[in-house]
């Protein structure tokens, strides 16, 4: 048994220490957002945040996560109470198939946590490890800019209206 | 409800001709319908004429719309819901959409060819409008008022005196179980409230909050995880397997072997992955060197035996050319490269097989899987669940077959199979390599006098049905042979899609050299042959414009009679700020291209600005401006999203992508060996301008951008560098070599 802290809660996980975090999140904790894309750390669809940093969960074994805080997209907000970045992606309609989007959002969230007002060039550089095949990139960029504005707005939290 | 209502259907549809009412088909599967006599019905109603195949209203007022097409991320689930809501006069939210499921929906074949709006959207449009007409007629009968005096709003028929009858009250006695009529009481586009609006996609909220949105996210009770050990190369035979150690791994449930098909099932997913690696190490395969020389692919292809079709010929001996040029363009094999590897869940219980799959064709795939398993089709149900974007025939059908074959060995237990990255890259059926040879002459006035276009290509669809289309069936001990490939028929075509010029040339000849032999596994990839044919044709138009000393946009317009085509060309040029002198900043170039997809679907013109680093050869699309005419617009943001995506994806194909292989194995098996566009190459801006055509047929926009985007980019690179590059991909190295030459 390994204790894993995910989205603020401790979970007792019965998995081998070499198990990549992704499989534990998806199967043991039944969290959908992080996706299997390559298992090689090449595409970013499995991206989650560990202690404030974007991490590719498909190549991060459980054994490295003792005492660390894991955040997934589910930990940011919900359908009823979406986080600014979730609102931003909905408002910009920033998805086609959407398979890569959760990973994009988590990498962007990590950027916005340490740099609330990133430039366009900084956003592009940050998202470099993440692949999108539908060609939704322009919308993803717009959504990250929008998320930055939403987070910056004092009443972002109170205004939960999603069109 | 006020008890049973006896309906006189002739009075309900007075003057509309005989109605064929059949209750015997009620509950029978939708695919067994026979169309009635008379004029062809619109869209997929032609094959499935019963209104309640498309629209159902329950007595409690619930409204359901059905489509046999599969949502692939193109957003039509939302668009169809808009269509149904608009024509029924109900709120958008009041309609529930059911998509491709062999138990519930019509057999609309594949979700492909930008046909969804045209086929299924049109069927829903007319079915919903006719359903509304029937409801009004029924209300008129009950209220004893002329139908013209009634109006509909918010799922009710309303009389001038304020009396209302809800749709649910009116649907007694299977009022919608009637065959459609050739014409429908469609709403005037001027009164649209839902159609034409950028209604937000219904699927996006779940996708950005961690909801279960994909087949990959399914978790059925008792579900187990399987992984397939695929052969290392085409045709490899499993000659030795020592599976004893893998069988003993705790948590491994079963090793499934059938000839060259090998898979392992485990309680937990990562254990299945580890067992797969162990099993692969324990397997010995006999491989054969059967792949062609990648570096000589155009020669290999054009020397293969071909069936030759003269698909277009126009002659006007009064016009002769004075200056002639010719050119050859090539395209390599290219990968769909879905971000999520293919996945399926299957369960074999009580003699019935259920497969949840992201296939593009639940019915054809069901036929293939049933044939593979030796089961009657009615005992096999395929339910479409979204997967990662596919852009054509990727591993979806194969993964569904894998899951079904493995699930049969474990009755009762749901089996989830997901491919590994290297399996998706190594085994998906690629977009076919192609060669085009063009020659044309200009007359003394600088117009094209004659035009010759020849294309060499495989087929562009090896989709199931036929079990032999499935990898698992090919690999089984009692294996199924790969079906013989066929050229896809014109006017849509396959390898020859968009090979016939839309321009008006006095002399024009187009040859399609159909190559039956398939050195690599290939099938349908977004736009089929149109990607390369439009790249070739529109590149060559620029070469001819150069020769004529003409502006590329003016040169195109000079040869283009189609008014809607001219409109998108003019719109894209104007919005881009296209100028005759094509003055671009240093190391930048401007390019233009246009096509009407399949010469019968959506029109698309794209102007591009590219920057080229002369030191490295690196090219980046800086900005693109597109104009598109997809007929009546249902969701403008949906069209914009499709065109934006087409431009970016096509830029990736055009600049970077080529399947790599040695004489035995595919060697591009991940994102390192098959690089695609990353954020450092994303344009600064993409603008899409839609020309709406209210009341006109839906034309479908999913694939119209692929060809023009490629040619526009290639033309911009030629403008920036002064060098014409004709072999895809137009890679950094090719640009650098051309600059240095």
TrEMBL record, chain A:
Pfam families: Fer2, Fer2_2. InterPro entries: 2Fe-2S-bd, 2Fe-2S-bd_dom_sf, 2Fe-2S_ferredoxin-like_sf, 2Fe-2S_ferredoxin-type, 2Fe2S_fd_BS, Beta-grasp_dom_sf, Diverse_Oxidoreductases. SUPFAM superfamilies: 2Fe-2S ferredoxin-like (SSF54292), CO dehydrogenase ISP C-domain like (SSF47741). One of its GO terms (molecular function) is oxidoreductase activity. Residues 1-76 form the 2Fe-2S ferredoxin-type domain. Keywords: 2Fe-2S, Iron, Iron-sulfur, Metal-binding, Oxidoreductase. It is an enzyme of class 1 (oxidoreductase). Transmembrane segments: none annotated. PROSITE patterns: 2FE2S_FER_1, 2FE2S_FER_2. CDD domains: fer2 (cd00207). Its EC number is 1.17.2.1. PANTHER family: BLR6046 PROTEIN, OXIDOREDUCTASE WITH IRON-SULFUR SUBUNIT. This is Nicotinate dehydrogenase subunit A.
UniProtKB/TrEMBL annotation, chain B:
It comes from the Bacteria. It is an enzyme of class 1 (oxidoreductase). The keyword Hydrolase does not apply. Pfam families: MoCoBD_1, MoCoBD_2. InterPro entries: Ald_Oxase/Xan_DH_a/b, AldOxase/xan_DH_MoCoBD1, AldOxase/xan_DH_MoCoBD2, AldOxase/xan_DH_Mopterin-bd_sf, N-heterocyclic_Hydroxylase, OxRdtase_Mopterin-bd_su_IorB. Its EC number is 1.17.2.1. The keyword Transport does not apply. Keywords: Oxidoreductase. GO terms for molecular function: oxidoreductase activity. Residues 209-289 form the Aldehyde oxidase/xanthine dehydrogenase a/b hammerhead domain. This is Nicotinate dehydrogenase subunit B. The lineage of its organism: Bacteria, Pseudomonadati, Pseudomonadota, Alphaproteobacteria, Hyphomicrobiales. The gene is nicB_2.
């Amino acid at each position: 048994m390994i204790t894993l802290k995910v989205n603020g809660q401790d979970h007792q996980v019965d998995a081998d220490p070499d198990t990549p975090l992704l499989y534990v999140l998806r199967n043991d904790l039944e969290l959908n957002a992080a996706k299997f894309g390559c298992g090689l750390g090449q595409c970013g669809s499995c991206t989650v945040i560990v202690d404030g940093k974007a991490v590719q969960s498909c190549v991060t074994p459980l054994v490295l996560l003792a005492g660390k805080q894991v955040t997934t997209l589910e930990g940011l907000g919900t359908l009823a109470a979406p986080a600014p970045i979730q609102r931003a992606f909905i408002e910009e309609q920033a998805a086609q198939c959407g398979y890569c989007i959760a990973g994009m959002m988590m990498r962007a969230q990590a950027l916005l946590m340490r740099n609330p007002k990133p430039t366009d060039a900084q956003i592009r550089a940050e998202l470099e490890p993440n692949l999108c095949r539908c060609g939704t990139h322009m919308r993803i960029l717009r959504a990250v800019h929008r998320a930055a504005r939403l987070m910056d707005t004092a009443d972002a939290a109170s205004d939960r209206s999603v069109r | 409800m006020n008890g049973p209502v006896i309906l006189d259907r002739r009075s309900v549809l007075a003057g509309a001709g005989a109605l064929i009412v059949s209750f015997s088909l009620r509950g029978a599967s939708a695919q067994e319908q026979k169309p009635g006599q008379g004029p062809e019905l619109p869209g997929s109603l032609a094959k499935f004429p019963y209104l309640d195949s498309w629209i159902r209203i329950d007595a409690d007022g619930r409204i359901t719309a059905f489509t046999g097409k599969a949502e692939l991320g193109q957003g039509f689930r939302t668009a169809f819901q808009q269509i149904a809501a608009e024509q029924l006069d109900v709120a958008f939210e009041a309609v529930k959409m059911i998509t491709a499921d062999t138990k519930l929906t019509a057999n609309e074949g594949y979700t492909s060819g930008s046909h969804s709006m045209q086929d299924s959207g049109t069927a829903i449009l007319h079915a919903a409008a006719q359903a509304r007409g029937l409801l009004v007629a029924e209300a008129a009968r009950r209220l004893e008022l002329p139908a013209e005096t009634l109006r509909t709003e918010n799922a009710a028929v309303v009389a001038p005196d304020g009396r209302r009858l809800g749709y649910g009250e009116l649907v007694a006695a299977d009022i919608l179980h009637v065959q459609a009529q050739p014409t429908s009481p469609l709403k005037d586009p001027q009164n649209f409230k839902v159609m034409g609006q950028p209604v937000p996609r219904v699927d996006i909220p779940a996708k950005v909050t961690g909801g279960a949105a994909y087949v990959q996210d399914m978790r059925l009770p008792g579900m187990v995880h399987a992984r397939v050990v695929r052969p290392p190369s085409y045709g490899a035979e499993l000659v030795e397997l020592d599976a004893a150690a893998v069988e003993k791994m705790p948590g491994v449930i079963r090793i499934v072997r059938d000839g060259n098909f090998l898979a392992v099932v485990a309680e937990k997913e990562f254990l299945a992955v580890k067992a797969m690696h162990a099993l692969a190490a324990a397997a010995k395969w006999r491989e054969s060197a059967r792949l062609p020389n990648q570096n000589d692919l155009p020669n290999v292809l054009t020397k293969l035996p071909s069936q030759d079709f003269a698909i277009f010929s126009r002659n006007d001996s009064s016009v002769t050319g004075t200056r002639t040029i010719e050119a050859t363009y090539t395209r390599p094999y290219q990968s769909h490269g879905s971000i999520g590897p293919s996945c399926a869940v299957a369960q074999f219980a009580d003699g019935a097989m259920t497969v949840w799959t992201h296939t593009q064709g639940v019915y054809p795939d069901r036929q293939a899987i049933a044939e593979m398993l030796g089961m009657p089709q009615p005992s096999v149900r395929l339910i479409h669940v979204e997967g990662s974007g596919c852009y054509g025939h990727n591993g979806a059908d194969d993964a569904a077959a894998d899951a079904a074959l493995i699930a049969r060995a474990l009755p009762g237990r749901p089996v989830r199979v997901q491919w590994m990255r290297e399996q998706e890259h190594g085994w998906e059926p690629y977009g076919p390599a192609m060669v085009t040879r063009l020659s044309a002459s200009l007359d003394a006035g600088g117009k094209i006098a004659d035009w010759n276009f020849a294309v060499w290509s495989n087929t562009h669809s090896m989709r199931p049905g036929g079990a032999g289309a499935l990898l698992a069936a090919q690999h089984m001990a009692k294996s199924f042979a790969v079906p013989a490939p066929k050229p896809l028929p014109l006017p849509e075509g396959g390898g020859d899609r968009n090979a016939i010029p839309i321009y008006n040339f006095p002399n024009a000849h187009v040859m399609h050299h159909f190559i039956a032999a398939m050195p690599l596994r290939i099938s349908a990839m977004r736009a089929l042959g149109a990607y390369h044919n439009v790249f070739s044709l529109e590149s060559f138009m620029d070469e001819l414009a150069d020769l004529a000393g003409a502006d590329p946009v003016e040169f195109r317009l000079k040869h283009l009679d189609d008014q809607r085509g001219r409109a998108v060309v003019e719109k894209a040029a104007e919005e881009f700020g296209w100028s005759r002198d094509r003055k671009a900043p240093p190391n930048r170039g401007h390019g233009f291209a246009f096509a009407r997809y399949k010469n019968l679907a959506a029109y698309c013109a794209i102007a591009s600005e590219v920057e080229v680093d002369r030191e490295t050869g690196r090219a980046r699309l800086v900005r693109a401006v597109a104009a598109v005419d997809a007929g009546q617009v249902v969701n403008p943001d949906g069209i914009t999203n499709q065109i934006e995506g087409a431009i970016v994806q096509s830029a990736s194909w055009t600049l970077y992508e080529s399947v790599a292989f040695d004489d035995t194995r595919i060697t591009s098996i991940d994102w390192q060996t098959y690089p695609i566009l990353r954020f450092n190459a994303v344009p600064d801006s993409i603008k899409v301008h839609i020309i709406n055509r209210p009341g006109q047929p839906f034309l479908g926009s999913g694939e119209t951008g692929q060809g023009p985007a490629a040619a526009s980019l290639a033309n911009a690179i030629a403008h920036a560098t002064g060098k014409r590059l004709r072999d895809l991909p137009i890679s950094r190295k090719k640009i650098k070599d051309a600059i240095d030459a």
